[in-house]
Inverse folding.
């Protein structure tokens, strides 16, 4: 299928597209920037409905992966972040409905439930953000839920952790990741969860936590994602040391991984 990914040239989107393309899907990238000019892409602004309509024409599925930049000024006031994250998502879903698209994924965040104590159940309502970023993500989830309920679309919200490229062990800013955190997730694992949802026969609305560490199985209810979708994290963070404060905690039994990446 042809899948539109908004924010298509971003660090997360470039990684999550890999398993989609490997499975034979055609990815159309939609971004305000032109990127590297390869493949199927559309340049436009998600906050402009006409741009969204142009981008989604001819597609069969949608992944909302756009996000206002994490610069200090972007989330200092509601104006910019709500325009991109919230209005942009609403516009995309509206355009998707006009074009008859039935399947979608919203890239959300655990920031929507930051105010809840651990462990986090997968079915926690995304109603306890502690900053504007999390609030915009909570609004994105509600837009997805609305589309599922009112327009009978099949929508999954993926509450992702801290996105890293596990091969390079670097984050979106190019910073080296030297210690393991239970919230770490490889961007390709995010794409694989999205693929399973879009290829499946699921209906309605559901929420999945996506991390790549075995610690998240219980603390973030990652087991629900694995059981529901038949998925297992592929990329390995176990080779990184735990932070010093966690090294004295009882050792957890690591699970067997499919296709474990080499150090």
């Amino acid at each position: 299928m042809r899948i539109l990914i908004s924010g298509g040239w971003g660090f997360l989107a470039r990684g999550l597209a890999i398993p989609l393309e490997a499975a034979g899907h055609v990815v159309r990238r939609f971004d305000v920037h032109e990127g590297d000019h390869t493949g199927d892409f559309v340049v436009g602004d998600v906050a402009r409905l006409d741009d969204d309509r142009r981008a989604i024409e001819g597609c069969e599925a949608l992944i909302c992966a756009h996000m206002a930049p994490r610069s200090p000024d972007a989330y200092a006031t509601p104006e910019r972040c709500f325009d991109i994250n919230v209005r942009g998502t609403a516009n995309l879903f509206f355009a998707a409905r006009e074009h008859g698209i039935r399947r979608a994924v919203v890239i959300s965040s655990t920031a929507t439930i930051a105010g809840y104590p651990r462990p986090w159940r997968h079915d926690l309502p995304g109603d306890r953000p502690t900053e504007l970023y999390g609030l915009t993500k909570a609004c994105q989830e509600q837009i997805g839920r609305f589309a599922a309920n009112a327009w009978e679309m099949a929508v999954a919200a993926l509450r992702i952790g801290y996105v890293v490229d596990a091969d390079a062990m670097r984050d979106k800013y190019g910073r080296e990741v030297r210690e393991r955190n239970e919230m770490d997730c490889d961007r390709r694992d995010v794409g694989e969860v999205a693929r399973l949802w879009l290829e499946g026969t699921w209906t309605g609305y559901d929420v999945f936590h996506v991390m790549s560490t075995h610690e998240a199985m219980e603390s973030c209810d990652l087991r629900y994602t694995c059981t529901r979708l038949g998925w297992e994290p592929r990329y390995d963070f176990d080779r990184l040391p735990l932070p010093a404060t966690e090294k004295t905690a009882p050792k957890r039994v690591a699970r067997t991984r499919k296709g474990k990446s080499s150090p």
Notes: Residues 24 and 204 are 25 Å apart (CA to CA). The mean pLDDT is 91. The chain is about 35% helix and 20% strand. Strands lie at 2-6, 26-31, 40-43, 61-64, 103-109, 154-160, 162-165, 170-171, 184-186, 205-210.
